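thread: overnight batch results

M.L. [08:02]
morning all. the overnight job finished for the chain we discussed friday. pasting input first so we're all looking at the same thing
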Amino acid sequence: MRTNPVDLFKKTLIVSGLVLPVIFAGCGKKNPIPPPVASVYGVASIVNDVDIKYDGTLTNVNSAKLTITKEDGTPILSETVSGQNFSKTYKYTDNPNFIEGKFKLSLSATDTAESNSSITIPDLPATATIAGSTDINAYGSATLNPVLNDKNPDQNPVTLNSVKSVEGNTQPTIVGTGIYINTIKTASAIGPYQIAVELKNSKGGIDKIIISGNIVRVCL
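M.L. [08:03]
and the structure it wrote out:
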């Protein structure tokens, strides 16, 4: 006897004495599993005052291309980075192009996996550090030897450009790399004093600072 094809999909289920036909549907085509989505992410920050630190994350990609340019589009570097999480630090001592200014950083792995950020290396003022006291005995003189420095490496060395008394109780002059201070020979000069100092960096930039101290009465 020939079997109806439909019967091939039927089974009989007996529940509590009832005969129920059960039809098993045929297996349909399975939906394909979508490929994993590739993505990249990066963020830049400033460390050590003038260095660029870049932290990135790669998802479902083995490597990506990191490109750094100046704000005007001038290329600085391009390199391949890898690892799910990575960190890079860029500094002047490794590449003299990393100086004060704005930079654009682009991380890309595919046409759709891209992350862009920007960061500015600040133009910091020069500093003068004086070891020891800046006090001077009344009717006397002293020489201060400040250590001059600019945190922007490309702007060193720094030199003394000019010095001037603020209140008129001293007569400062530049002697070599130091500041020679002669006090005014009057009793009214006893007390606080200030000297306005101009510092000049290697690129010609001028920064102004104030050196403060006291003219101290000497008891004989």
